[in-house]
Amino acid sequence: GMLDMSVLNDYIIWLAEYRDVPLYQGYYHMWQYTSGGQVDGIEGNVDFNLSYLRISDTREGEAQEGTYLLPEGEEGPEEGGEVEAGHKVYLTFDDGPSVYTDDILDILEEYGVKATFFVVGKDTEEARESMKDIVEAGHTLGMHSYSHKYSEIYASVEAFAEDFAKAQEYIYDVTGVKSSVYRFPGGSSNSVSKQDMEIFGEYLHSQGVTFFDWNISSGDGGSAVLPVETLLKNCTGTVEKYSTSVILMHDSAGKKTTVEALPEIIETILEMDDTVILPITEYTEPVQHRHWDFEE
What is the pLDDT of residues 189-216, one digit of tens each? Predict the structure, then answer.
């Protein structure tokens, strides 16, 4: 059976009008009407591409894609697939899911903002639920390795590839999303890896995966718990200097003040001129500490 187009159109219009924030990537959960009159719930990802809506139906892991014209008068983003603004800001959360993931998701929803979660391999029921919640709310799920153990991951390309496959397959098994963005534990500029990081960058490139570092750090990665005022200043103080700001934060049990600071961080950024908060997608300009040229 085909998707019911009236339901689809209502959904697209809802996306376009959502909190007056243009939303070009989201998650849908609609009904598919089968010829027998029964109704099946289906879930998947929505990608706006110019005037088209691409739908992946991920039931039973079988991706069936259909492309539908957007209704008259509804336009997708400019060529390149991302909303235009002088300052694009990407909120990123590493190391989750955690006890705070739900709180972070609630705050993001309150402000109608989409973010990016670089998760690690936490094989618990709570973590799996949180990963589903992240995707269902339209945020981007990225990989931050499976084990996050530097000595193991960076031992060799083979070890890195094994951990990468585990991380990507875990996210896919849980959410039906094949993640295509990665954040290296320690970043691409880390001084922990005994191997040259370029070999791992090259491996990601071979897998069609883009890595993202950051150019703004909240400072919440250390053992000290920073006060809300410090986090606010760290996250927002230099946004107006950059056309693309990728902000590093952590979704982690010890980082309570990060959650407390988040509403004010979002409000401060949203009040800036010509500034939008977006999730990382395939259209996002990468922010990378190390630049390698792997073009064939």
Answer: 999 999 999 999 999 999 999 999 999 9
* CB within 8 Å of 10: residues ≥ 6 apart: none
Give strand pairing partners of 54: 47, 67
User: 159: number of CA atoms within 13 Å, CB side?
Assistant: 12
Alpha helices (H) in 82-186, listed in sequence order: 101-110, 125-136, 150-153, 157-175
Element housing 231 (H / E): helix 228-236
**Structure-block tokens of residue 6:** 């009236």
| Residue whose tokens read 């320690």 | 186
Give 38: exposed, middle or buried? Use CB within 10 Å, 0-12, 13-18, 19+. exposed
Question: Which residue(s) pair with 68 in the sheet?
Answer: 53
Measured in degrees and rounded to the nearest 5, phi and psi for residue 172 equal -65, -45
Report pLDDT digits (tens) over 131-159.
999 999 999 999 999 999 999 999 999 99
